[in-house]
Amino acid sequence: MEAGDKRQVRATITDVAARSGTSIKTVSRVFNDEPFVRPETRRRVLEAAAALDYHPNMAARSLVRGRSFLIGLFYENPSPNYVVDLQTGALDRLHDERYRLLLFPCENARAVSGRLLQLARTSGLEGIVLAPPLGDDPQTVRDLVEARMPFVRIAPTTALDASPTVGIDDGAAAREMTDHLLSLGHRRIAFVQGDPDHPSNSQRLDGFRGAMQAAGATVDERLIEQGRYTFESGLAAGRRIFADRQRPTAVFAANDDMAAGVVVAAKEAGLDVPGHVSVAGFDDSLISRVTWPQLTTIHQPTYDMAHAATDALLALIEKRPLTPAIRLQHQLLVRGSTTRTASL
Amino acid sequence: MEAGDKRQVRATITDVAARSGTSIKTVSRVFNDEPFVRPETRRRVLEAAAALDYHPNMAARSLVRGRSFLIGLFYENPSPNYVVDLQTGALDRLHDERYRLLLFPCENARAVSGRLLQLARTSGLEGIVLAPPLGDDPQTVRDLVEARMPFVRIAPTTALDASPTVGIDDGAAAREMTDHLLSLGHRRIAFVQGDPDHPSNSQRLDGFRGAMQAAGATVDERLIEQGRYTFESGLAAGRRIFADRQRPTAVFAANDDMAAGVVVAAKEAGLDVPGHVSVAGFDDSLISRVTWPQLTTIHQPTYDMAHAATDALLALIEKRPLTPAIRLQHQLLVRGSTTRTASL
DNA sequence: TTGTAAGCGTTATCAA
DNA sequence: TTGATAACGCTTACAA
């Protein structure tokens, strides 16, 4: 009866050793693909393991190796599309690795500032991926560097330290989009900013201003609206923009969620997109294909960035060589929401 | 110099005991909020811990307690909005608990069938939340039950076992939506099915048929289209529906993503929504508010379901009493995409 | 109220 | 090619 009672309990390495007539060290060797195990011995061990439904205990492994194989993804939650892309990129890189991903959705960068390291510590993380704008918080970066916690920043703007970095050239992309609108004859263009704390936002705004200036077009400051990267904030900004009698002929929003909001605001105001007003977004998130017309936007390879960031993080953790600053390609996607201005 | 070298290494309970002039057991007591520690002693311990930047080693804790405090969320990836709602619900419930959430996005239910238990084992999970349709895979459920792995199923349809369950009444909700369309005068109504493997789909279809029958309206089988719960599949279904000369006056899609696709298909076909055709969705995901017009839909409390499921799972793990089958309330949300039929 | 000693299930050392 | 045995950092009896 005593042996029978064991059934509920998870088999351990000792059980496998006993059943296979070997030692725990040999079983360990088999399960860690170490050399110098006779094929016959290996077979016996695996057989016993299968019979006992043995799985190595992660906690014990972690303890003795001094490693958790846990990495953390820290992000704010601007749009679900973006978040899922981020997660999927990281998870896909982790596939076939023994590492596991822990999620840390943060209310906002300020709330975790100074607390992030502690969170990582208590969770036993071995490394961290910081999605924007968390990678631009000086306190956080300082803490991590000081604690020698490996981390990689996605799309940061500030060069706060020597930690690896993955991103696109937001400024250049915004310039490209603005040039696109200018080439369609638009001169009176509104810009909807995202969260002022996201440095991507100021880069995009700068790109917009730069392109306008280069083309000799005036930027009407009353047409620079403040949003927060959410659909709702874009809707509100759009309503403000279209309430004015001096309407712009085009609106460039700093991300797709806001651009979708602008489109809805336009329709509320009885305006046709792109007939009366062209609307452009940024990110190429799912939402840009779901609105009607579909949004002209900048494809930002969120998935690839998360993938590359995770890849760099693993290299960092395992002390393999890596590229300190990876810059991925963006792409202008012209779709139905922008067209030649009617006033031409 | 030897003491100095220690700086890199993480402090252990022994270090804290030494520095505070106590024993490791006392330090352990302090960090586990056990009673019978003199306030003065507690202070000294905490002081030493702070000075050494001590954080308990999770692996060691897990090992000795025989617990990992890891729970897994398994889901397919129909729509990012749904996934994020799910995650947020689970994470919010876990907030302030020592449990951590591990993500397991699955390609499809069949791919993990038979492999899910092993995944859970090697990850050291203590419990599992199964999002639809994973909770309806007999093999998976059988494996988990047999292995005595605690799990909770979200929105399952099949009563495969006695594991706790959280969901809404999909059939009743679909009936309500159909009644809504009928009450607007629609009789020729198309239905876009979701993934045939999701049991929620058949329940919604049954609800649709039931309501139509009860109202004495005929269901034209050629208007029952097959989709896969994705935006693209809804778009394709919509194109097929509107290509026919005998157009319906309303389309009821089994989820919002597909309904959004139908709306785009309608616009492609030069049809006004809801002027020429009413479109209804299901789920109240973000996308339903992003299309224009906004979608009439069924609010499915995804967040609440994940929250409740996680809550039940913790109860299960900790052997606390729990409600075996939680049924949450849905809600019909009438928005701009449905209106009285013109033919009336 | 505090401390000693014995594990928890692995991997690493080193001898066989 | 294998196996005793000692860690790893913590919690849990059990004493004191």
UniProtKB/TrEMBL annotation, chains A, B:
<dbReference type="Pfam" id="PF00356">
    <property type="entry name" value="LacI"/>
</dbReference>
<dbReference type="InterPro" id="IPR010982">
    <property type="entry name" value="Lambda_DNA-bd_dom_sf"/>
</dbReference>
<dbReference type="GO" id="GO:0003677">
    <property type="term" value="F:DNA binding"/>
</dbReference>
<dbReference type="Pfam" id="PF13377">
    <property type="entry name" value="Peripla_BP_3"/>
</dbReference>
<keyword id="KW-0238">DNA-binding</keyword>
<keyword id="KW-0804">Transcription</keyword>
<protein>
    <submittedName>
        <fullName>LacI family DNA-binding transcriptional regulator</fullName>
    </submittedName>
</protein>
<dbReference type="InterPro" id="IPR000843">
    <property type="entry name" value="HTH_LacI"/>
</dbReference>
<feature type="domain" description="HTH lacI-type">
    <location>
        <begin position="11"/>
        <end position="65"/>
    </location>
</feature>
<dbReference type="InterPro" id="IPR028082">
    <property type="entry name" value="Peripla_BP_I"/>
</dbReference>
<dbReference type="InterPro" id="IPR046335">
    <property type="entry name" value="LacI/GalR-like_sensor"/>
</dbReference>
<keyword id="KW-0805">Transcription regulation</keyword>
